[in-house]
Please model this.
Amino acid sequence: MEFSIKSGSPEKQRSACVVVGVFESRKLTLAAELLDKAAKGYISDIVRRGDMDGKAGSTLLLHNVPGTLSDRVLLIGLGKEKEFHEKEFGSAIRTAVKTLNETGAFDASLFLTELSVRKRSVAWRVRQCAMIALDATYRFDQFKSKKDEVRRPLRKLTLGIERRNELALAEEALAQGIAIAEGMAVARNLGNLPPNVCHPTHVAEQAQAMAREFKLHCEVLERADMEKLGMHSLLSVAQGSHQPPKLIVLSHQGGKAGEKPVVLVGKGVTFDTGGISLKPAPDMDEMKFDMCGAAGVLGTMHTVARLKLPINLTVIVPATENMPGGGATRPGDIVTSMSGQTIEILNTDAEGRLILCDALTYAERFEPDTVIDVATLTGACVVALGSVASGLFANKETLARELLEAGEEAHDRAWHMPLWDDYQELLKSPFADMGNIGGRWAGAITAACFLSRFTKKFKWAHLDVAGTAYKSGADKGATGRPVPLLAHYLLQRAGKLN
Ligand code: BES
Ligand code: MN
Ligand code: ZN
Model:
């Protein structure tokens, strides 16, 4: 979809459809009022008659409205004006785009970005609008032999803003919104691919393709390289699989030379059977999404590279399958991680932390300013937070706060969880430096505690996205989270968030 920004009056737009809002009190928004005036009360008459009550989610399509230059006018119900906040703004945009896709209009002028949203700038509204519009029209049908074609899909969206002097700001925000949506689509595509296609080699090839497209530096470590580095924890997860593991490193040098990078580490388990600690059969297909952490950090890199952000960013993806097999790790096996710490593997299904710990140790060589890992790490996190918030852990309060704020700004929220020392003792092992599980309780926290033992040398945060990176049920699929959160955090660091 193509976007543009305009400051102008709705009645003068020459497009297939003009979209304006109506509040629940039947109060017209400013743009709707202007249309109504040009139409000599045509719209307010319809609203008064009750054909459009302004309830959130309601829509009414009008044709040949007098006094306007557009073929159609689409009214969008916005709910109560006093309750029109971020979430309602997002829903209104989503409803508008979905409806437009079904009306037959190829292009439309959207006058919802003019609405004021508490505490939010015009840049925020435009960025959010582009993200939501593209997210709402995302499809993944490459494996359907018959695609359900949209009859006349929306091709061009013009966003109306009130003031001409805000155009430059809005244009920049638009580019950001589009880039974030693209990053989300990269993450969703990778996540949605079936696990027979999206194996570690495929993830590595996608990273290499991205490197070519944006002139990034890319390095892929093979099993032999990992052996030399002593990544026996990572390798222990891969040893039950016929697919070779890959450790993917991708760097964007947008900042000053010598500036310490942000490093993002993403869990790339392309299929998690649980290994010898085999998972139960129901819904096991969803464990193809166990590489959504990797997809999220690669998607974020896509956004950053597209925007040429003036920061140094390195992405590390440990990619492997977790399969049972004759060569697979047994519960009770002890491995030595790259850090030198030994791990008793009590449950082969707690494999995410086993690959992340070596990737985190590997991150040390980039002398990072900040390291953030992203992982579909624990079912316990889903029990705690559901699919609303990602679990956030950090060894530095300021970093936690910055990430929480980025999540609020992006409407891709996280919740701060504790990393208190008291939890560490749950990882005790009689035979090794630690076990890889902490028992029945506080599973998301003990997993984070495990990782914290490998991140002492830098500022570090961990996002458990097991509940947020994909959806189950009727609309099963990757969501593209936490690309918006991470992208906003990096935009903020680059001083580009208005
Ligand atoms: N990939 C899973 C976590 C997961 C579970 C993600 C459900 C999404 C939905 C992870 O590798 C895992 O199996 N974790 C175990 C840890 C346990 C064995 C300590 C879990 O959460 O049950
Ligand atoms: Mn597992
Ligand atoms: Zn897993």
